[in-house]
């Protein structure tokens, strides 16, 4: 059976809240999904999942160091994430504060790994973004993204 994981880094809880909403939506869409802080995940753990969703606060327009470290550690397994489903999300302080460049950085690492990332023509196009604490709009975007990732994963990996 296909399996997903949502991995996040969060100092003040905003990205963590988004991660939990996405993971809940994935589980509700019948894709068993773990939700873990990045310091609880080793690169080799990634091999056991069909869908890998990664969230980071925006730090200077990029992913936070611990998230980058996970991707750097995953070089040991380069090629073995090929064909897995990916997704990304980010929390920032400001509109125009770089949350979409943060998401694109995560997606770039996923694409280089051979992962499949679905855009969204109606919702947040690259992945859910939040300004500070997730509000109703962000909650809905996270739920929508979780559902879409679960549906695609079940289609390709069941
Ligand atoms: C080192 C550092 C760099 C940051 N850089 C940015 C930035 O470039 N743009 C922005 O909008 N917010 C920036 N922020 C704010 C965080 O992205 C924002 O507070 C986010 O919601 C924190 O997520 P968290 O609650 O999951 O830790 C920065 C915060 C820190 C600590």
Task: Describe the structure in your own words.
There is one protein chain. This protein has 158 residues and is of the alpha/beta class. Helices cover 38% and strands 19% of the residues. The protein contains four helices and six strands. Strands 1, 2, 3, 4, 5 and 6 form a six-stranded parallel β-sheet that branches. Helix 1 links the parallel strand 1 and strand 2. Helix 1 crosses helix 4. The longest helix has 22 residues. The N and C termini lie close together (6 Å). 44% of the residues are buried. The structure holds flavin mononucleotide. The site of flavin mononucleotide has 19 residues, from helix 1 and strand 4.
Morphology: globular
The set of bound ligands, ions and cofactors reads: flavin mononucleotide
| Low-confidence segments | none
Main β-sheet: number of strands, strand sense, barrel status? 6 strands, parallel
Calculate the terminal CA-CA distance, rounded to whole Å. Answer: 6 Å
Number of DSSP strand runs: 6
Helix content: 25-40%
Instruction: Tell me the number of helical segments per DSSP (H or I, 4 or more residues long).
Output: 4
Overall pLDDT confidence: 98
Order of helices and strands: EHEEHEHEEH
Instruction: Give me the Rg, rounded.
Output: 14 Å
Strand content: 15-25%
Class by helix and strand content?
alpha/beta
């Amino acid at each position: 059976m296909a399996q997903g994981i949502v991995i996040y880094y969060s100092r003040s809880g905003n990205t963590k809240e988004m991660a939990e909403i996405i993971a809940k939506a994935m589980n509700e869409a019948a894709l068993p999904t773990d939700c873990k802080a990045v310091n609880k995940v080793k690169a080799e753990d990634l091999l056991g999942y069909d869908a890998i969703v990664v969230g980071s606060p925006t730090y200077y327009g990029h992913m936070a160091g611990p998230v980058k470290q996970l991707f750097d550690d995953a070089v040991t397994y380069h090629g073995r994430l090929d064909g897995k489903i990916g997704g990304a999300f980010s929390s920032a302080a400001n509109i125009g504060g770089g949350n979409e460049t943060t998401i694109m950085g995560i997606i770039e690492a996923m694409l280089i790994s051979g992962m499949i990332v679905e855009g969204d023509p109606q919702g947040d196009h690259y992945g859910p973004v939040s300004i500070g604490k997730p509000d109703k709009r962000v909650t809905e975007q996270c739920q929508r993204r979780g559902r879409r990732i679960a549906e695609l994963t079940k289609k390709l990996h069941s």
